[in-house]
Each structure stands twice: as structure tokens, then as C-alpha cells.
Write a structure and sequence with these properties.
This protein is an alpha/beta fold. It folds into 2 domains: 84 residues, Urease, subunit C, domain 1, CATH 2.30.40; 297 residues, Alpha-Beta Barrel (TIM Barrel). The protein has 10 helices and 24 strands. Strands 6, 9, 10, 11, 12, 13, 14, 17 and 18 form a 9-stranded parallel beta sheet that branches. Strands 1, 2, 3, 4, 5, 22, 23 and 24 form an 8-stranded mixed beta sheet that branches. The chain is globular and about 70 Å long. The two termini are 33 Å apart.
């Protein structure tokens, strides 16, 4: 059987460290075959003319709760699929569905629903596994996490959860909680990424946690300690620890609300694009009108208010998740923080792929990798989203490849 070829022409192709202007890209059977500065000659190729737009690796969101009115805590296959399809419209080609603090039985049930949804997900961003956020957090840094369920790591509990599913890829916890260090060891031994989150840890706690596998800081600056006083002495917190440990990765909610431009610039200046993953941390209110919404499940979630482009607790005392989409993150870095587009894209593609250990297959447009691809204009408006060489979203003005060679991306 002959290969199915798709050729992308006249695109500004974003590679990890440079941009190929007016380049061409050849896809064969869902894999990137060639990226070239010159013309690629192949017979029977379906052609997409990018018309000078940017051709980027697909965006990878390693921390997302919902979107389009659905949440991964809804315990419904259709909710999972709705979230995946919603974020695909904004350039996300792969995601790590994220569960909130809850009961053991609810977490196990959500994991089972995930596995059913993953088998049926053909129209949205692909699922890379599950991220469990909680319930092993510092109560005073819980943010919008439900205080009813916050507790210490208990091996009788977390081993049951781990044994119930092979889909868990990441688990966020506060490393200062009793039992958090051996918990990190268990996760690392199983190939699961422990991540530091919702924490009041000091530098000494973070160093110990890093030695036991906690190599990522969840939504840097949000719900975590900075410089603090104890018994009149100052101590560095998690924020300072993330800067001091060169090998520590961080993720940031670059929606322009959770972190202002000056902090986005600071994180970028200190950590660099190779250590920063952009995340939406989006809740069901993403891609929905502003107004009242729910964080978590419809039946047991927390009421929130969406205004000013962000979700807040009803008393407006704190943010309660994001309404961002991946395109907004890239746009914010470029337009508000003056970060080069190539670096902004790397933080949305290559870096999260590497953090998850998925860089062999996704994250860059390199020969042999999956053809997960996004085409967007100079305002980061998404024109086309492709997963494994299959178009899963296109704007109204974009013709799907495979009809005629003259079909164009506007």
C-alpha cells in the first residue's frame, strides 16, 4: 500500500531553536518525514498552502481541568471528549487531563472514565495520561481546592489508587506533608512524575523533595510559599527554591492574570524556555461566556465567578482556576512579556513533551515524530490543528487537505 502524503508549503516553520521562513514540510502516514528550506518534490501529495502563516508543533497542555462547559471530574465520557475537542480549536494537540482534590473512590472512578474516554477520543486533543492534583496539600495553601478532602499521603489510599490504573502520569502534592517523601519515592519507582503544589514548604523541604523525585513545580507562584519568616528568621520558600535548583522544571499559567508581565519576564529570565512549561490550568469555563461557573464536578464542585478573563472565588478573595486556552498563553508571552515567538512556542511544545518523557514522539517538527501540528497567524489565531496527520480542527476559511491541491489555508 502506498503512503499517504501531505505537504505543507509556504509556511514559517517553527523548529525548537529557529524559524524556517517559506519552508516546506512533508507528512507521510501521520509522521513528519521531511522539513526543508527548499521545495519538496513528491507525487500524489495533498497540499496545504500556509500562505505565510506559522507552522508549529502542536501545543501540549500538561495541566488542564476542563473547557467548553465540561470538566474531567464530571465522571462522564462525553465530558472528557468535550474538553479535548474544545481545546483542539485553540491549538492543543495533546493534554494531561487533571483531577482535583477529592475522595479516593471519586479519583478511582474518574480514572476509569478516563480510560474509556481515551479509547473513544478521535476528534480532540490526544490524551497523554492523567494528572492527579491533590489531595495531599497544605491546608493554608489550598487555593480553590476543596478543604473537605485535604489530607496527608496515606499508602493504604494512594497504593489503591495507583493499582487501579496504569494511566497516572503525574501527581501533585505538598512535599512538607507527613508521608510525602516516601510517596514521591513510590511515584518515581513507578515512572510517575511527582510535582510540588499547594505548599508551604521551605527550601530545605524542597531540596529533600527534589532528591526524591519532585522535579516539577506546579503553577509557579500560585498557592505556594515565597520568602517567609519563622521565629524572626527569613527562609526561602518554593518560589526561591525553583530558581535556585537549576534542574527544577516549572509550569506557569501565562494567561496575563495569574502572573503579570513582569513576573513572566522574571521566570523566563531565570529559568529559560527549556525549563518552563506553559499550562492553561483551565476549568469548564474556558471558551465559555463569563459569569457563574463551577470548579470541579457539577454535583460536588465549588461555585466560582468568571470575570476579567479569569475564574475567582465568589467573594473575589482568590483566583479559582483559569479560563485560558493554549493560544492565549503563547499570545500573552509574545505581546505582553516581549518573549520571542520561537521560545514561547517551545514552552508550549518541546519543554512539556520533555517533562512528560514524550519527546521521542511529540513536541517538535522533526523527522520520524508524530505529525501533531498547528497553523496560526501573526495574532496566534488558530487556522488548523492536526494530530498524527489528521485534521481535527480547521477554521471556516480553511479547507481540509485531501480535496484538491489548490485548497489553501487563509
Amino acid at each position: 500500500m502506498s503512503k499517504k502524503y501531505i505537504k505543507v508549503i509556504n509556511g514559517n516553520i517553527i523548529t525548537p531553536y529557529r524559524m524556517i521562513k517559506n519552508g516546506e514540510l512533508l507528512i507521510a502516514d501521520g509522521k513528519v518525514e521531511t522539513v526543508s528550506e527548499g521545495q519538496i518534490t513528491v507525487s500524489d501529495a495533498e497540499t496545504i498552502d500556509a500562505k505565510g502563516a506559522y507552522v508549529s508543533p502542536g501545543f501540549i497542555d500538561i495541566h488542564v481541568h476542563g473547557g467548553g462547559g465540561a470538566d474531567f471530574m464530571d465522571d462522564d465520557v462525553h465530558a472528557f471528549l468535550k474538553v479535548a475537542e474544545t481545546h483542539a480549536r485553540f491549538g492543543t494537540t495533546a493534554m494531561l487531563p487533571t483531577l482535583l482534590t477529592s475522595t479516593k473512590s471519586e479519583i478511582i472512578r474518574s480514572l476509569a472514565v478516563y480510560e474509556e474516554a481515551a479509547a473513544r477520543n478521535v476528534k480532540g486533543a490526544r490524551f497523554l495520561g492523567v494528572h492527579i492534583e491533590g489531595p495531599y496539600f497544605a491546608m493554608e495553601k489550598r487555593g480553590a481546592q476543596d478543604p473537605r478532602y485535604i489530607r496527608d499521603p496515606d499508602p493504604d489510599e494512594y497504593l489503591d489508587i495507583l493499582n487501579s490504573s496504569s494511566s497516572i502520569k503525574r501527581w501533585s502534592a505538598a512535599p512538607e506533608r507527613q508521608g510525602a517523601i516516601p510517596f514521591g519515592d513510590v511515584l518515581r519507582d513507578r515512572g510517575i512524575l511527582p510535582s510540588i503544589a499547594h505548599t508551604d514548604a521551605l527550601y530545605s523541604d524542597v531540596i529533600q523533595a527534589f532528591e526524591h523525585g519532585y522535579s516539577l513545580v506546579t503553577h509557579l507562584y500560585s498557592a505556594m510559599s515565597g520568602v517567609t519568616r519563622r521565629n524572626a528568621f527569613r527562609y526561602g520558600g518554593v518560589v526561591e527554591s525553583a530558581y535556585l535548583i537549576d534542574e527544577m522544571d516549572v509550569e506557569i499559567i501565562a494567561d496575563g492574570r495569574h502572573l503579570p508581565a513582569e513576573l513572566l519576564k522574571l521566570v523566563y529570565k531565570i529559568k529559560g524556555a527549556d525549563r518552563i512549561a506553559l499550562i492553561t490550568d483551565a476549568i469548564r469555563a474556558a471558551a465559555m461566556p463569563e459569569g457563574p461557573s463551577i470548579l470541579g464536578s457539577l454535583t460536588d464542585g465549588i461555585p466560582v465567578l468568571v470575570e476579567d478573563g479569569v475564574a475567582k472565588l465568589p467573594d473575589r478573595s482568590a483566583f479559582a482556576g483559569s479560563t485560558a486556552t493554549a493560544d492565549r498563553l503563547v499570545r500573552t508571552l509574545v505581546e505582553e512579556a516581549d518573549i520571542p515567538l520561537v521560545d514561547a512556542v517551545r514552552m508550549m511544545t518541546a519543554t512539556p513533551a520533555r517533562i512528560l518523557g514524550a519527546e521521542r514522539h511529540i513536541g517538535t517538527l522533526v523527522s520520524g515524530k508524530d505529525a501533531d501540528m498547528v497553523i496560526f497567524d501573526s495574532q496566534i489565531n488558530i487556522k488548523m490543528t492536526m494530530v498524527k496527520g489528521e485534521v481535527i480542527y480547521r477554521s471556516d476559511a480553511v479547507a481540509s487537505p485531501g480535496i484538491r491541491n489548490e485548497d489553501m489555508v487563509s
